[in-house]
Specification:
InterPro entries: Phage_TAC_18 (IPR056919). The chain has about 110 residues and is an all-alpha fold. It is built from four helices and no strands. It has a domain of about 80 residues.
């Protein structure tokens, strides 16, 4: 759900930014403080995707860990991968919804 608020539309504006522009609230995820660092790591890795909603790989996570010198425990790697699965699932839902909205517009 939160992903939908952070994907730019065809003009480059996110739903979160549009809501802010019109003074409307947008949901924010509640991240438990002990996991906040993993949330930050996930977004650092996610923002480096080369194209489209492709899954992060263990190789990419490992290379990021090696190059940045970030000590990541195995259970934190698994958290990143589960977060990525959820992110990809929501991204694909949003993409399908966008295609459907375009179909509806073209039918009018």
């Amino acid at each position: 759900m939160f992903v939908r608020y952070d994907i730019p539309d065809e003009r480059g504006e996110t739903r979160r930014a549009r809501n802010a522009r019109f003074g409307q609230p947008a949901p924010k995820p509640e991240i438990p403080p002990p996991a906040a660092h993993v949330w930050g790591w996930f977004w650092a890795l996610s923002n480096r995707r080369r194209s489209g909603p492709e899954p992060l790989t263990y190789a990419e996570v490992g290379e990021w860990q090696r190059l940045t010198g970030t000590p990541v425990r195995p259970e934190e790697v698994e958290m990143i991968m589960r977060m990525d699965d959820a992110y990809l699932d929501e991204t694909r839902k949003e993409q399908r919804a966008a295609v459907e909205r375009e179909r509806e517009k073209s039918r009018r």
